[in-house]
Structure formats: C-alpha cells, structure tokens
Amino acid sequence: MTVATEAVTLAAQATPTQTAQATDLVHAAAPAASLVQSVDWLAIAPPVVAAVAALLILVADLFVREGRKHLLGLGAVLGLVVALAALLPLRGAGHRTFCLVGDTTVCSYTADQFALVIQALVLVGALVTALLSLTLAKDDKNLPAGEYWFLLLSSAAGATLLPAARDLATLVVALEVASLPAFALVGLRRGDKRSSEAALKFFLSSVTATAVMLLGVSFVYAATGSLHLTEIATRLDNVPAQLDTLAQAGVALTLVGFAFKTAAAPFHFWVPDTYVGAPLPVAAYLSVTGKAVGFSGLILVTVVAFPSYADVWGPALAVLAALTMTVGNVAALRQNATRAHSAVRLLAWSSVGQAGYLLVPIAAAAYTSDAQIGSTVAYALMYAVVNLGAFAVAALVSRTNPGGRLTDYRGLYARSPLAALALGFFLLCLAGLPPGIIGLVAKVTVFSSAVDAGLAWLAVVMAVNVVIALYYYLRWTALLFRPAPQEAPEQAPATATGETPHPVRAPRRLPAPLGTAIVLTLVAAVALSGYPQLILRFVTGSLFQ
Predict the structure, then answer these.
(1) What angle do CA 106, 110, 116 make, to 5 degrees?
(2) 359: domain range?
(3) Is residue 1 part of a domain?
(4) Residue 1 pLDDT exceeds 70
(5) Does 446 map to a domain?
C-alpha cells in the first residue's frame, strides 16, 4: 500500500489520533508533488544560446585589443548560427516546459510550430543584421563594437523567447528584453544628435505602450485570476457580470499596447524618425524583428488568450488595419526624392503600410478561426526576406552616397548591376508584381482571408492601397535603370610634366559581409517566388499544435 493510499484510508477514520496520522502521511506524500520542475533545455535552447553568446561577447570585449574588435562580430554571427541550428531538433514535436504542477497542458513556454517559425524568422533577421553590421562596426569609429554586439544579441534573445511564451508575465518580460536593447542600439552612435533624438522618441513611445499594456494585463488578471493564456481563455468564458467591464477594458488596453509595438496607426509616429536616426542595420532589424515581436505577441493575446472577446478586438483590429495601410502608403507616396534620407523614410512608411496588411488576417481570425493567422505568418516571412534585402542594398548605396536620397539610386544599374537587379526584385515583391511571385501570392492570401471572414470592405481598402503602393515602388524601380545625371569629373593632380591624366573614379570595393547579405536575401526571395509552397503551407490549419 502506497503512502498516499494509507493517508486516504486513515482519513476515513473518525478518531482524532487517526486523523493526526493521516495528516502526517499527507505531508510525507507532499514531496511527490514538489514544485521543483525539470527544465527541457532543448526547448529553450535557441534563446539561451543567443543570451549566452551576448554575455560571452560582453566579457570578451574587455580583453580584445582595439585592432581585433572585428572578431566580436564574427562571434556574434557564430552565436546566431548556433541558435538557428538549435531549432532543428525541435521540428515535428511540441516541446513544453515550466508547466503547472499536476497539469502539463498549462505551460509558460511552448515550442510549437508557431513559435519555431517566428523564432527562425527572428534569428535569420538578426543574422542578416549582423552581416550588415560587420562593415558598419569596422568603418564607424563612433560605434562601440562590444556594446553593439551585446545589445544586438540580447535583443535577439528576447525576441526569440517571446513567440514561445504562453503566459502574460513571460510575454511582457520577453517583450521588454527585446525592446530595451533596441533603444540603446538606435542611440549608440556617439556624437550623433539625430541618433540620440531617434532613441529618445523610440524610448518614450515604447515606455508609454508598455505602461498601457501592463495596465491591461493587470485588469485581465484581476478578472480571471490567471496569467497563463490558455487558462485566461477558459475563464473569460465565464467571467462574472460585475467583472465583464473590467475584462473588456483589459483586453482593449492590452491591444493598444501591442499596437504601439507593431507601429499600427495612429501609434506609428515614432517609425520614420527612428529609422532615419538609427544606424542602417539597426533600422533593418527594427523593420523585421521588431515587427515579428509585435505581431507574434498580438496573435498570442488575441487568438490564444482572448477568443471569447473576439467581438471586441476583431472590429478594432480591422479598423486599425485599414487605417495603418492607408496612412503608411499615402505618406510613402508623398516622399520627396531629393530630400536627405528619403530612401530610408520611404522604407519606413512602406513598413507601416505593410503592417496594415499583416493585421488583416488577425482581424479575420475573430470572424472565422485561428487558421487565418497562417496568412499573417506567410506574409511576415515574405516581408522579412525582401525588406532585409532592400535595406542591404540601401547600406551598399549609402557607402558612396551618405545623403540617402532616392535620386542617389538613379543609374545604379550602370554602376552595380547585381545590386540594382536585386533591389528591383525586392521592390517588385513588396509591390506584389511579377516576377516577384512571392509578394503577389502573399497579398492574395491576405486578401482571401478578409473575403473569407466577410470583411469585404477591408478587402476593398486593401486593394486600393495596393494600387497606391504600386506608384512609389515602381518609381523607385524605374530610377535604378535610368541614366545617371552627368557629374563634373574629379580632376586628378597634374603629373610632373604638367599634364593632367584622364579623370578616373575609383569604385569602392564591396565588403564581403554586405555582399553575402544581398546574395542570401536575393537567393531566398527568388527561391520563394519559384516555390511559394515553402511558406504557403502555413496558411492552412492551426499553428498552435
């Protein structure tokens, strides 16, 4: 007879002595239900590897000589590659850890299909950013290398943790671990007033968003008594009438907090100045990884935690989607091609418009099923590849044209045919035009999700915005193949005989990491256009399995 069985038998006796014995046996059986849990280290390996790599680089920075700081960047790239490799053993089976005692279905960390896809997106985005940053860290003496790589890897660790979080506490902590280093990355360049201003604006807006979100989380906890997303979903079905208003307010405030993170209008005001003031690789990182973090968090709280209040967040997200895509595309349309940093500003406003498209399937999930979010995941994968590629080409052009004007791209095909063809292909993917098939397919899937959910008005708004976006994407593409304006040649110094040699402009050599980033993103975009089934398989079925 086991200890627990003996306790139950003695508890059936009515005498005080036997009751005391039963109590002692229950305490003896308590260690069997210990709160000490085993940790699934394989499940949490990706964020742990990124975090450990960040700490190692921070310590190594103290001992590496100034002339060998580039080794820190190579270490960061290696750490991200190892973190990506740690995702491979997790395929095909859901790994859970940090679960409630006695209920292994309620966990704080779940490495399901959704988490693995977003983690792969985040790590690939961080890896391409690291490749772009290798050249920047070498050329820019105002950028402290050790701190830069530590902050980049720390932010990547938080961003990798977030899609696997399954309770609100872990979700908020992961979001802040991803965001706080990003503030410092934006303003890390010493002596740059634009960079400091961008970091301050980014910081203030994000802190406001976090405060609003925490208020919403506290309301949700007060109404449900739980922080686990699946438990919240169950308890919101039976919220007492006197707590219903509190629960609705909590849902609304939590959505507002994530709307800041996703740069959804009218909470998008920080995006253009932040992208312009930040180092170009950091702007690329924010445009892809920052969006992946915001949208994965938004999906988790709406589809997993708040399905009972779909009538609250569904219409709200549909309106936000329409407003965001319209504001972003109209602002991008109005960019002056001769204005300084107009290229990055156009990419910034384009990212706001793309955020509107990404919101559409999430809003549609309120009216049909969570299977609609697969369209958001597929679109995010397409957007990540082509937008990182566009920023990589922008980084190449900025080496010879630091003004960053759109007019600087005129005649790029004559100067660098591969870069021009790559950028042209990326822009056509963003526009959804052949040969950028993957962009067209991704837009069709998002459009179909709105139609299937009965949101015909939102589908019409999206169609109008796609047409608007065609103009500025095609205008930029056309500039790449136009003849470059005639420039006064730089005169070389006269020789000893008094003759002036023929003027020659020495081209700047393409750095290997920058060229690698362009080639990798171009190959990925072409492969996805040739075989879109690689990401379309996420469109059907639920990802939370």
Answers:
(1) 160
(2) 306-484+510-545
(3) no
(4) no
(5) yes
